[in-house]
Write a structure and sequence with these properties.
There is one protein chain. The chain has a single domain, classed as Roll (2,3-Dihydroxybiphenyl 1,2-Dioxygenase, domain 1). The chain has one helix and six strands; from the N terminus they run E-E-E-H-E-E-E. The strands form two sheets. It has a four-stranded mixed β-sheet with strand order 3-6-5-4, covered by helices on one side. Strands 1-2 form a two-stranded antiparallel sheet. A hairpin with a 7-residue loop joins strand 1 and strand 2. It is globular, with a radius of gyration of 13 Å. The protein starts with 7 loop residues before the first strand and ends with a strand.
């Protein structure tokens, strides 16, 4: 998939891990990868992030037919993304 600026490859597991690989114009972890974690309740997860020393970088965002996503840095400074389909 591509929206003209970001390319995306999604993989879905029936009862196992699911995820997405994307190209981004950013440098998480000084040029590393941005890991997306599947999450049923993004708002609750972001509350837990801040309660444990992390910082919300992007609030839950509607990404159309692809669901919702958010980004945060953990207490060690790693950039991590959350995703849910519904």
């Amino acid at each position: 998939m591509s929206d003209g600026t970001t390319e995306m490859f999604a993989f879905v597991g029936d009862e196992g891990p699911a995820g997405c690989l994307t190209t981004e114009d950013s440098s998480p972890m000084a040029g590393g990868v941005l890991v997306y974690l599947s999450c049923e309740n993004i708002q609750r997860a972001l509350q837990q992030v801040t309660a444990n020393g992390g910082t919300v970088m992007q609030q839950e965002t509607d990404i159309g037919p692809h669901g919702y996503c958010a980004q945060f840095t953990d207490a060690e400074g790693n950039l991590v993304a959350l995703h849910r389909f519904k």
